[in-house]
Amino acid sequence: MYNNKKISIVIPCLNEELSLKRILKNIPDFIDKVIVIDNGSTDNSVEVAKKYNAKVLIEEIRGYGIVLSKGLKHATGDILIIMDGDGSYPIEKLEEICSFMENSGYDFVSGCRFPLTNHMAMPFLNKAANLFISWLIRIFFKIDVRDSQSGLMVFRRSVLDKVSVYNRGMGFSQEIKIKAWMNKELKCAEINISYNKRIGKVKFRKIRDGFKNIHDLFELTRELKHN
How many Å apart are CA 24 and CA 188, to the nearest integer? Predict the structure, then answer.
């Protein structure tokens, strides 16, 4: 528990055996429940998760948003953490983020990787696409988000009652941030984090996923205009 609140962490997984081991062996003591959602791994990811006493869910339908939605439904904490399972995000930063959120009264805090502390950690095209999409979001939605694609997010359970996310793919990350920042009942912020080169094969398809995320932004603008 943290500040008398239960904490659940949700970790999406697809062939992350090596990075998952590093993450799970360093899970902070204040986290009450660890949920790993496997999306069809062919390595030993599931076995590693079970070895470290994580609750393992299996999702056969591929999709980042599908996986996270399933994990969040099983998360029981008062505070929920989403963190990618590729080993690139600083698990040692979680306590600082929770403290920042609690002490400042935020409902949603997202890790911001920019400016990069390790310029070799993110390929140039990934960085360019992220910065461009984040710029579009600031223009379209008039919100101050610098890292729209960040896979490290900490938020209160109450956020899920006020924000509905429908994106089944990589666009889940940007949609939940946009809707949280635009909700006048929620207080949101970013916090700078370090970022490491991921362990294992990159799942993000630079061109296809980049254009899909941009397309999803236009769809989201239409959705919000009709609400």
Answer: 27
